[in-house]
From TrEMBL:
Function as written in the Swiss-Prot or TrEMBL entry: Catalyzes the conversion of 2 pyruvate molecules into acetolactate in the first common step of the biosynthetic pathway of the branched-amino acids such as leucine, isoleucine, and valine.
UniProt key word Amino-acid biosynthesis: yes
Keywords: Amino-acid biosynthesis, Branched-chain amino acid biosynthesis, Transferase
Assigned EC number: 2.2.1.6
Catalytic activity: 2 pyruvate + H(+) = (2S)-2-acetolactate + CO2
One GO BP annotation of this record: L-valine biosynthetic process
Superkingdom, taxonomy of origin: Bacteria
UniProt protein name: Acetolactate synthase small subunit
Length: 172
């Protein structure tokens, strides 16, 4: 049985780093469940949020050790289960004049919104935890989903502590 863990990794912000990290996972046969890369407050550093499925704590430990060997990696932490996590989903749903208001009402229950409307479709934007987004998608299936695009997780631990590179501008 596998379990999903979220790693927050600070890396050098330059071309090829994502390839090196993804290549490490591929060479070792580890599955990346989700991956997002974003800038930080330091333009020299990017933050990768990597969801990994592992079958044991020792596998996770191996992944962290292997990542630490990459010279482009500044810092790695495993986020706590209580971390704040969000994803973004765009769902294009088949719609017409008859069902459009039903779709909008359904999406409103999930605090989503319509971001594009045409004669035959409506595109919905929603953010939240994975379970919420899966529930929304399940509700929208009855209308006929045309397309789904979903981001990987972004996450931070709760509280004042922050993951920061040694070279961050603000000195924290």
């Amino acid at each position: 049985m596998t379990s999903t863990h979220i790693l927050s990794v600070l890396v050098v912000n330059r071309p090829g780093v994502l390839t090196r990290v993804a290549g490490l996972f591929a060479r070792r046969g580890y599955n990346i469940e989700s991956l997002t890369v974003s800038p930080t407050n330091d333009p020299q550093v990017s933050r990768m949020t990597i969801g990994v499925d592992v079958d044991s704590p020792s596998t996770l430990e191996q992944i962290v050790k292997q990542l630490n060997k990459l010279i482009e990696v500044h810092k790695i932490i495993e986020l706590e289960d209580s971390a704040v996590t969000r994803e973004l989903v765009l769902v294009k749903v088949r719609s017409d004049l008859e069902n459009r208001s039903k779709i909008v009402d359904t999406v409103g229950l999930f605090r989503g919104k319509a971001v594009d409307v045409s004669h035959e479709s409506i595109t919905i934007e929603a953010t939240g935890g994975r379970e919420k987004l899966e529930a929304l998608i399940k509700m929208l299936e009855s209308f006929g989903i045309l397309e789904i695009v979903q981001s990987g997780r972004v996450a931070v631990n709760r509280g004042a502590s922050a993951l920061a590179a040694k070279s961050s501008r603000n000195g924290s």
